[in-house]
Amino acid sequence: MRAITMLRVLLGTGAFGALVLTASVAHARSAGPAQAVIVPCSETALVNAVNWANAAGGGDLILAPFCTYALTSAHSAGGAGGPAGLPNIIAPITMTGLATEITRASNAPAFRIVEVDGPSQLPADNGQLTLTAITVSNGDAGIGVGGGIANLGGSVTMTAGGVRGSRASFGGGIYTDTALTMIASSITGNTATSDGGGVFKNAGLVTLLAGSVTGNTPNNCAATPPLATPC
User: Fold this and answer.
1) Cα gap 111→26, rounded to integer Å
2) DSSP output for the chain
3) What is the pTM of this model?
4) Is 82 left (phi over 0), alpha (psi -120 to 50) or beta?
5) What is the DSSP annotation of 29-61?
6) pLDDT tens readout for residues 28-85
């Protein structure tokens, strides 16, 4: 009951806006992430759900089908990575949708959509982001890196989703320092002012399976020498 009450407050709804399907937060801290939360179709609900999952040491977020989560402001200073629309991912978090989109609102200030922080850069963090059937769009990191997703030492896996219409200096769509896996996903229509319009690999392993990286400017993929470009 205490966990359910906590989530009602976090998601800012008087109704049962989030549903705990398994163990309590205390159990998640001791035994690893073992919870799933249904996230209503609103910016506030998504931001609060990510904050909850980070605090719980990880969690599974079930996003609303056919919903566009429009982010109107940054909800993380982003550290060295610059501001991000969602709180930085510092724990193992999965987000599952169905034709779901997370986007920066057209009248919002510039910020990337999400930053994933891991131990190779920030030893205290264990950012592991898994996205399924979710599109990330319209991120803008300005002179920073990773307009859609900046993977700064963690890991990112995307299945049946995409990154589009985002901008940055390096990695308009995605910038990665460690592990990036894209399965049946598209990276398209992104722009970098320097290099890697679609994907910029600064380090680590990039795996692209049964997807497409097309229509990005000035190029689809780039990497820090002497690394080979990922596509």
Assistant:
1) 33
2) -HHHHHHHHHTT-SS--S---S--HHHHHHH----EEEE-SSHHHHHHHHHHHHHHT-EEEEEPTT-EEEE-S-SB--GGG--BSSPPB-SEEEEEEEEEEEEE-TTSPS-BSEEEE-TTT-TT---EEEEEEEEEE--B-TTSB-SSEEEEBSEEEEES-EEES-EEEE-SSEEESSEEEEES-EEES-EEEEE-SSEEESSSEEEEES-EEES-BS-SEEE-TTSPP--
3) 0.87
4) left
5) HHH----EEEE-SSHHHHHHHHHHHHHHT-EEE
6) 343 454 578 999 999 999 999 999 999 999 999 999 999 999 999 999 987 667 899 9
CB 159 within 8 A of CB 131: yes
How many C-beta neighbours within 10 Å does residue 124 have? 7
The 10s digit of each residue's pLDDT in 135-144 is 999 999 999 9
**Residues 220, 231: Cα–Cα separation, whole Å:** 8
Do residues 140 and 166 touch, judged by C-beta distance below 8 A?
yes
Token look-up 């909800």 returns 75
